[in-house]
Amino acid sequence: MDIIPQLPHVNAALNAVASLLLVAGRVQIARRRIAAHRAAMLAAFGVSLLFLASYIAYHVSAPIFEFRGHGPVRPVYYALLISHVVLAAIATPLVLVTVWRGLHRDDVRHRRWARWTWPVWMYVSVTGVVVYLMLYRIYR
Predict the structure, then answer these.
(1) pTM passes above 0.85
(2) Count of alpha carbons within 13 Å of 67, Cβ hemisphere only?
(3) Which residues form the domain of 128?
(4) pLDDT tens-digit profile of 27-78?
(5) How many whole angstroms separate alpha carbon 129 and alpha carbon 10?
(6) Domain count of the chain?
């Protein structure tokens, strides 16, 4: 079985898991459960790294899949896709710095970065799933 055609489905699942872990991490820090927060956020980071590796492997190996929706949904799809891609590029350094600061218990700076990082990372993870659904499931 060729794995490459399956990677978009794997990628969507990884994005969905990352979203759930990000919510779990946010809930845990709100409850001041630092160890649980750290575990959830490091798991989200690991899942996101797996996603990135899978995403790169897919796009190096597979042809571009064209969006087949028509009418008013088309600009909605492209607005989501463009915002997703732009914010994914921004999220990468944000996540790296925020994780680094958290791991080194630079709590003041970690919190400052996390206020920006978490919503961007969450948006990227959720819109990744939405883009997948629109591209591979709804408008197939």
Answers:
(1) yes
(2) 19
(3) 4-138
(4) 999 999 999 999 999 999 999 999 999 999 998 888 787 888 899 999 999 9
(5) 11
(6) 1
